[in-house]
Amino acid sequence: MVKELVNIIFTVISEVGDITVVKSLNIAHRGFSGRYPENTMIAFQKAVEAGSDGIETDVHITRDGEIVVCHDEKVDRTTNGQGFIKDLTYHEIKNLHAGVNFGGEFENSTIPNIDEFLDYVKDKNLLINIELKNGIIEYDNLEKRIIEKIYEYKLKDNLILSSFNHYSMVKVKELDNSIKTGLLYAANLYKVEEYAKKLGADAVHPYFPSVMKEDIVKNIKNSKIAINTYTVNEEEDMKRLIELDIDGIITNYPDVLGRLIKEADKNS
Ligand code: G3P
Ligand code: MG
């Protein structure tokens, strides 16, 4: 069975003879964050080992202009440091322990910069989802700088940018219409496919309860908008979303989701 990422990067196509089966992509949220320190290199490596089809991660900019991979605006929750990323230098951030919530086991883990992340994923045939964390702090030129990185690492075909800041997603399209964008939202936007079309987006990235209904999924997919839903950690929810043919399922547990996708594939 051949598994490859196709140009519409949101679906995996398995070819068996001349039968084509489309199934959901397994996207690791902040890497394999259910079992390893989120948004660290070990979490990304373990996601790949677990068989993820894709990786989701979050980015901010330091005081001295480095793009770093981290979820929160502050380093307090995930490291032994304190303060806003925007107020710290990259050197200060690099000296922090990013495995602090996992005891001594991952004490060498640090906050990666964007180059460490992209250099690791670039030749792994993964769907990369970079979430621009510019909903609270609007980092100068984050969109332009990330687009430059996408070209530097030749990742355009396998990468989608997303954000809760939809002005930012429009800005991405204005800068380069060929970069794929996904609109993050938390709940039940009415006729979201019409909104997404208006913004030129390629995908919607809803919190999963918003797309648990067949007609909602159908309307979005009929509009040629992909659906990548977050953050799905319970088996029952994963199963339902696989049944609904959701394009990408973002999870902290790519091992569990991978097993369920395989089982669904066998039974189909
Ligand atoms: O991109 C999906 C998901 O990561 C959005 O929420 O807060 O986990 O970044 P959050
Ligand atoms: Mg995120």
TrEMBL record:
Annotated PANTHER family: GLYCEROPHOSPHODIESTER PHOSPHODIESTERASE, CYTOPLASMIC, GLYCEROPHOSPHORYL DIESTER PHOSPHODIESTERASE
Pfam family of the protein (one): GDPD
PROSITE patterns: GP_PDE (PS51704)
Domain of life of the native organism: Bacteria
GO biological process: lipid metabolic process
Protein name: Glycerophosphoryl diester phosphodiesterase
InterPro entries, per the entry: GP_PDE_dom, PLC-like_Pdiesterase_TIM-brl
Residue ranges of every copy of the GP-PDE domain listed in the record: 24-261
A GO term, aspect molecular function: phosphoric diester hydrolase activity
